[in-house]
Amino acid sequence: MDRRTVFNNRLLPYLLLAPQLAVTLVFFYWPASQAAWMSFRLEDAFGLTTEFVGLENFQVLLRDPSYYGAMVNTVVFSGSVAFLSLSLALLLAVMADKQIRGATAYRTLLVWPYAVAPAIAGVFWLFMFQPSLGMIGRTLRGMGVDWNPLLNGGDAMLLVILAATWKQISYNFLFFLAGLQSIPKSLIEAAAIDGARPTRRFWTIVFPMLSPTTFFLLVVNIVYVFFDTFGIIDAITRGGPAKATETLVYKVYNDGRLGGDLGGSAAQSVILMAIVIALTAIQFRYVEKKVTY
């Protein structure tokens, strides 16, 4: 049966869409167009004088070795956070989906970190792992581990990866748990009767049926690590030490807001936006083919 919603007033559908379209235009397309226009201009730090320079900002940016360093940091950071947050969230969701005592409290505690602001999450992890004052940091140094994220770039990168992963696990957990609870138990019971072990049941039945949820979370997590982790990095390392944790989004802020290079910063934001759009398109073009709806 073909079910369609019929509006008596022809203007009503457009009125219902208007608020969302207005938000999209004002907070996405307008800033994006402004950034694209600024990337072709050279401005002073106060925006008082401007000069059209064409592609010069992009040419200078692509000759900057530090930009490629930030790109490498972004690849390492985004790949690690996406993999860890998805893997750990799936493991926790599988455990929470079982019939265990205190399951409700267990699920509630796992959701709480999502309510923490990124900057607060960054400060929280910095306090724990600060080499001289943090409880875990002092314990590691007391055990003979040379731990110092304030001076060691590898330690700093590990710390921001852990903080960003912890912040995102709750979001992924909610969707994985909902996906697990929507899988018919009869399929799993039938496989168990046929002699399939728990591991085989998971990889042949459960995980394939979670593929739509996994694909959705993969797209969301890529956007998260590229943009929403700015507050965590700013609170913990500010891109240091020696730019070891400076990602592409933090370099946009560092060069534009602190360095006063508004045109170069706008060029970076345009490239970053193009990278995220390209990654999303690739996921929909190739990864979605393996999704079973």
From TrEMBL:
Source taxon at top rank: Bacteria
Domain ABC transmembrane type-1: 71-283
Similarity-based family: Belongs to the binding-protein-dependent transport system permease family.
CDD domains: TM_PBP2
Name assigned to this protein: sn-glycerol-3-phosphate transport system permease protein UgpA
PANTHER family to which the protein is assigned, alphabetical: BLL4140 PROTEIN, SN-GLYCEROL-3-PHOSPHATE TRANSPORT SYSTEM PERMEASE PROTEIN UGPA
Matching NCBIfam families: PRK10561.1
Keywords: Cell inner membrane, Cell membrane, Membrane, Transmembrane, Transmembrane helix, Transport
Organism in which the protein naturally occurs: Alsobacter ponti
Principal subcellular localisation of the protein: membrane
Gene designation: ugpA
Subcellular location: Cell inner membrane; Cell membrane
Transmembrane segments: 12-32, 67-96, 108-128, 156-180, 201-227, 266-287
